[in-house]
Design goal:
The strands form 2 sheets. A 4-stranded parallel β-sheet has the order 3-4-5-6, with helices on both faces. The chain has a two-stranded parallel sheet with strand order 1-2. The chain has a single domain (7-235), classed as NAD(P)-binding Rossmann-like Domain (Rossmann fold, 3-Layer(aba) Sandwich), CATH 3.40.50.720. The chain starts with 6 loop residues before the first helix and ends in a 7-residue tail after the last strand. The longest helix is centred in the middle third of the chain and has 29 residues, at 97-125. The chain has 7 helices and 6 strands. The protein has 242 residues and is an alpha/beta fold.
Length: 242
């Protein structure tokens, strides 16, 4: 699981381990946090390893998969791609092409690299799960978030094309698009008034927490999801309906 040392990624890693999966906790900078996630999983009786890798770097991802083979003797059955690359928060009129184009390149490069790396093993066994974390901002614009929203919209379309191509190989491809999620790094950029407005706009009367998103990812990752591919799950409490 890419980007799983905190927030949604950490919650998902814990839940998948609880459901019997062996989990790779990928991180780039937060070694201590990733180690804590692994320690918590192991204390609960699960299996996990922490592996540092910049998922935009094909060599780093290949090394990560080498570590998986050394540890557990196999490939990756389920890819949860949650890694979030940096992005600018500003209006388009103040943005440079490097800021917008760079985010697009980072987002799709990471998805391309990790997907290419895990596909051979999934294809060989005729079964696999690809799950990409998007954002409601790809459909519902918010001031200053054009770089993230545009990049994640591209990621969602990338996933749909993969779903069409990989279905005959027994591989499902789905996207989970959270709305605002409390207890994450992104939520820290909002002030209290913005959060109150978001809660007021949510029919279920609260913001999501990481566990809400993790539960949806876990469904897509499991055997119960036998006939859903090319779909997008909006985890937003009804804030946006589509």
């Amino acid at each position: 699981m890419t980007g799983s040392s905190s927030g949604i990624g950490a919650a998902t890693a814990r839940l998948l381990a609880e459901r019997g999966m062996r989990v790779v906790v990928n991180y780039l900078h937060s070694a201590e946090a990733a180690g804590e996630v692994v320690a918590g999983i192991e204390a609960a009786g699960g299996q996990a390893i922490a592996v540092r890798a910049d998922v935009r770097d094909a060599a780093a991802v290949d090394a990560l998969l080498g570590r998986v083979r050394e540890t557990w003797g196999g490939g990756v059955d389920v890819l949860v791609h949650n890694a979030l690359t940096p992005y600018a928060i500003k209006p388009f009129q103040d943005m440079t092409w490097d800021e917008l184009g760079g985010k697009l390149d980072d987002e799709l490069r990471a998805a391309f690299v990790v997907t290419k790396a895990v596909l051979p093993a999934m294809t060989d066994q005729g079964w696999g799960r690809l799950i990409y974390l998007g954002t409601g901002l790809s459909r519902q614009p918010r001031a200053g978030m054009i770089a993230l929203g545009t990049a994640k919209a591209a990621l969602a379309q990338f996933a749909r094309y993969l779903a069409q191509e990989l279905g005959p190989r027994g591989i499902t491809v789905n996207v989970v698009e959270p709305g605002p999620v409390a207890e994450t790094k992104i939520s820290q950029v909002l002030d209290d008034e913005q959060k109150r407005r978001q809660v007021a706009a949510t029919p279920l009367g609260r913001l999501a927490v990481p566990a809400d998103v993790a539960n949806v990812v876990a469904f897509y990752a499991g055997e119960d999801n036998a006939f859903m591919t090319g779909t997008t799950a909006a985890v937003n409490g009804g804030m946006a309906m589509y």
